[in-house]
UniProtKB/TrEMBL annotation:
The UniProt record lists the keyword Metal-binding: no
Entry-linked Pfam families: CLP_protease (PF00574)
Keywords linked to the UniProt accession: Hydrolase, Protease
Coiled coil residues, start to end: none
One MF annotation (Gene Ontology) recorded for this entry: peptidase activity
Any single biological process term in GO: proteolysis
Residue spans crossing the bilayer: none
InterPro entries to which the protein is assigned, alphabetical: ClpP/crotonase-like_dom_sf (IPR029045), ClpP/TepA (IPR023562)
Annotated protein name in UniProt: ATP-dependent Clp protease proteolytic subunit
Gene3D superfamilies in alphabetical order: 2-enoyl-CoA Hydratase, Chain A, domain 1
Amino acid sequence: MHGLKAWRAFILLSACAHLLPASSRVLYRPAAGNRPPQISIKGELVQADLEAFTAIAETARQEAVTFMASRGTSTPPPGMGFVNVALDSRGGNIWAAMSIGRIIRRYSFATRVEVGASCVSACVYLLAAGQGRYVGGRVGVHRPHLQNDGVTSARAEKAQYASINAQTRQYLEEMNLPTSLHVRMMQTPSDRVTWLSAQDLSTYGLTRMIPPSPRPAVP
């Protein structure tokens, strides 16, 4: 019964996908062969991405259970996650990022920044949420950007920044990452990017090494 529900949900999502522009930020690839389901998040993160991801995540989770059961196992194949979330984004809405991140962690999805991809700014909160994390591309951090509307007082802006500072620190603690990562973020001005080295990624706990996905065979 659950398999039927998941299949119906997948058909609905697939039908909706054809109505969306080609630049859709949240894309779904169902399980195929030895590959578990994958959700891709590309481009600038906006609030609508949270709604799209929430809808897709449950379908992916259900399909992953069926996928694992069909292989007679409850663990992902080597080099894979239960569901892989592929990231290629230069950031965006930090609140949407943290909300999506909590879904990723709740469902024990794995996060990946493949070779050639970048994960910058708010995207790092998605990467941090992965139960397993692989980075083959670039990861960059900086302080969250505050939009100055010309009306907000300096005092209100300071209070807003303090709130963001506290909530992002708490989020990274939820993900069991060291305070030093938050400090590094806050030390980098919002108009600059600090690119993290392989050693940085390891030190900050942003890589729990999962081998890269197998490349599809060339016909």
